[in-house]
Amino acid sequence: MLGQQDVKLLSVVVPCYNESEVIGRFFARVIPILESIDSIRFEIVCVNDGSADDTLGHLVDMSRQDGRVRVIDLTRNFGKEAALTAGIDEALGDAVIPIDADLQDPPELIPVLVARWREGAEVVLAQRASRACDSLLKRLSAAAYYRVHNHLSELKLPENVGDFRLMDRVVVNALKHLPERHRFMKGLFAWVGFKAVIVPYEREARCAGHSKFSGWRLWNFALEGLTSFSTLPLRSWTYIGGIVAFIAFCYGSFIIARTLVFGIDVPGYASMLSLLLFFGGIQLIGLGVVGEYVGRIYDEAKGRPIYLVRRRYQERRPVSQMPSGRRVIELNGLSRVSRGGK
Ligand code: UDP
Ligand code: MG
């Protein structure tokens, strides 16, 4: 028998952006599952990421009916990574599970994740057994991405693992010490390390609504991941430049030698122009890669908070008792949350 002290608090963190079609179904499916787990109290921390539809209304209604549902309303759309950060910051549980609102991460897996956690795992990763519900293009690009990332970066991302996972409080506390504004959560989760076990699952199709991640957004997400965890694209320009300069030197020596032996050879407009364009292109690509990093340094240097909270519903503690390492400034009713410093 488990005693009262063994009852643990589980926080389920749900980023929601324009999910009014699915949110009712989400609660209807998740709550009975959470209630069925022995010796667990739970809270569902919903982060409204600046939805333009009635998502907030649905969430607030739900939190009024059920005290275990808390709602964090952000001032605008900050993106999934920021919304997830907000939810994880606010979660009070002994373990935290981020989950998508669209029921693509099956809540039926939560009891399995909890069981592995009780067996001693600090992180329980839910790994997609197949990508059958994705388009061919998405499958190919995902496979290529993991290959490129894991080759370029020291940090190895486990393949086909998303944000759906269980993290023990020690892991969550470690995560909260990572100060960066550009938050590639999958990478940050992997970066903190800890003992992980993997549980396979079948990912379902979105239950309603549509994906917020277009091709362009996914491309930027991939760039975010690469630049956050590898400086190889930046450093590689030393070697590319070295190789090009070496080839140029050899070719230049050859031209000089040929001119000395055979005299001046005037034609060569086409080859001059193509070489000029080729090197111009190479330099611009190099500059672009440097720009990707400089832009991120600029964003980090500004030190703006990752998100702003408009209001919390079902708040159980005073705003001043915010998660450690952050400061809270009350601004015209807005709580501005930032990290450390003065
Ligand atoms: N999401 C969010 N902010 C955004 C985009 C998405 O909070 O700017 C949430 C969204 O509501 C959902 C989760 O992130 O709960 C995953 O989004 P989506 O299903 O669109 O992504 P996909 O499953 O297609 O990768
Ligand atoms: Mg989805």
From TrEMBL:
This is Glycosyltransferase family 2 protein. The keyword Metal-binding does not apply. It comes from Cupriavidus basilensis. The keyword Calcium does not apply. Keywords: Glycosyltransferase, Membrane, Transferase, Transmembrane, Transmembrane helix. It comes from the Bacteria. Pfam families: Glycos_transf_2. SUPFAM superfamilies: Nucleotide-diphospho-sugar transferases. It is found in: Membrane. It is a multi-pass membrane protein. Residues 11-173 form the Glycosyltransferase 2-like domain. CDD domains: DPM1_like_bac. The chain crosses the membrane at residues 237-257, 269-294.
